[in-house]
Design a protein that fits this description.
- This is ABC transporter ATP-binding protein.
- Belongs to the ABC transporter superfamily.
- Keywords: Amino-acid transport, ATP-binding, Nucleotide-binding, Transport.
- One of its GO terms (molecular function) is ATP hydrolysis activity.
- The protein has ten helices and ten strands.
- It is of the alpha/beta class.
- The chain has a six-stranded mixed β-sheet, sandwiched between helices.
- The chain is globular.
- The protein binds adenosine-5'-triphosphate.
- Adenosine-5'-triphosphate (ATP) binds at residues 12-13, 15, 17, 35, 37-43.
- The site of adenosine-5'-triphosphate (ATP) has 12 residues, from strand 2 and helix 1.
Length: 228
Amino acid sequence: MILSLKDVSVRLSGLHILQGISFDVAASGITVLLGRNGVGKTTTLRAILGLAPATGSLTFEGQSIAGQRTHRLVQSGLGYVPEDRCVFAGLTVAENLRLAALREPNYDLVFELFPVLKQRLSQTAGSLSGGQQQMLSLGRVLLNSHKLLLVDEPTKGLAPKVVTEVAVALELVSQRVPVLLVEQNLAVVRRLAADAVVLASGRVAWTGSATTLLGDASLTKSLLGVGH
Ligand SMILES: Nc1ncnc2c1ncn2[C@@H]1O[C@H](COP(=O)(O)OP(=O)(O)OP(=O)(O)O)[C@@H](O)[C@H]1O
């Protein structure tokens, strides 16, 4: 495992959003974090990154990271792709990438994974399709070497064909770097995820293989409230 949470709690505005959650993230492939709307998935990612005030134990590569400042966590190898596709709409693809680049950016990797970005370097990011913007968002993080990526709902609001493109992109990314993925689209989860963690009412309600979870219709319905 690369990341471990033990008894992590978060209170926001007096509400006990995460109530002592524990789970591990595998050192390779994709671990998917699931749960109904508002259950605390984004808050979990924010707690890992030091962006939400958490108590409990957080261990990254065997070292405690509880209470560490966000910039230190990023320096030590945590990458974050937030839900809102943080691209600068008025800047070109090349400019977006240049702004994200730290020491020794790996443009070759980004262009190998997402050739479309190389073809559209001089196009403004705002005029890219939703899927292309998501690839730019992932590309901006992948320019710099990370040991674990936290990716929040990358397929949200995308058309079905584009969802598949982003899923393929994530699959390629996960061959290079492990990913903790928040994803609501169960077809994407089925395609990508080896391990699943389900949150419910601020707690971990289930952990196991995504295939097992999605293969059990009544479990999926009771945990996620959806049939499939
Ligand atoms: N800064 C905040 N102050 C107060 N409450 C908050 C704050 N941020 C989030 N919350 C609440 O915490 C709960 C969990 O939110 P969070 O965004 O983590 O859920 P989520 O599982 O990612 O939801 P979704 O699937 O809808 O994106 C929600 O009820 C939300 O309203």
